[in-house]
Amino acid sequence: MPTALITGATSGIGKAFADRLAEKSFNLVLLARNEIRLEKIARELRQKKGIQVKTIPFDLTESDAGKRVFETMQTDNTTVDWLVNNAGVGDYGVFEASDRDRQLDIVRLNILALTDLTHCFLPPMLEQRSGVIINVGSIASFQPMPYWATYGASKAFVLSFSEALRAEVRDRGVKVLALCPGPTQTAFFDRANFPQQTQSTGLSLADPDTVVQQAIEAIEADKQTIVGGASLLNFVVNLQRFLPREWMIELLKQQFQPNR
After folding, report:
1. pLDDT band at residue 202, thresholds of 50, 70 and 90?
2. Of 15, 92, 147, 151, which residue is the catalytic one?
3. What pTM did the predictor assign?
């Protein structure tokens, strides 16, 4: 049975990946900070699906996070066939007024941990000439995001990194997908301090299960990037091709400006 390592596995898209891959008879390694929630999900999946589920309660913003997770997996002699880099964090607001540590944690988690985990787990996949890496970006990956400046930049990295890496390894048996969902039914906006009264983006929230199913279908079709969620999102993402870049950024500024 193949094994998938999923970060940010206790809710939202990460939890949906765990459920869907369990249905496909994957053994799972679930990673998140909340040990109690991890163990609860692991117990449920073991009982319902009859699979092996390991848990790693760990904060990926810590130093050398990816290397430490990889060493833990080596100690357990666990081969990772699918790596789902889902863990991520955002922060809404005026950049200069934001919390410094929060901004740095966005970089540590969304960029450094994702890069480190990929760098650690990719070589064994290449040795066995098979494997899947799914890096979760965002529709924010496609353009700068005023009032989400660090988050948007971090997701732009995820998209560029994933597409470049795919070109390097696609002929050696490993598939790499950039999954860029739009607004999804997760706790992201609450955790990012986005005010409840302004949480309408003009787009309906996608079901995490739908986003994950789209990602799995994209892997099966050997695609490099998918915009997860409603089909309208592809139009939104491609709109920037037809508008001057400065105009697009100004539209987003008006959309997300605090106290508008």
Report:
1. low
2. 151
3. 0.91
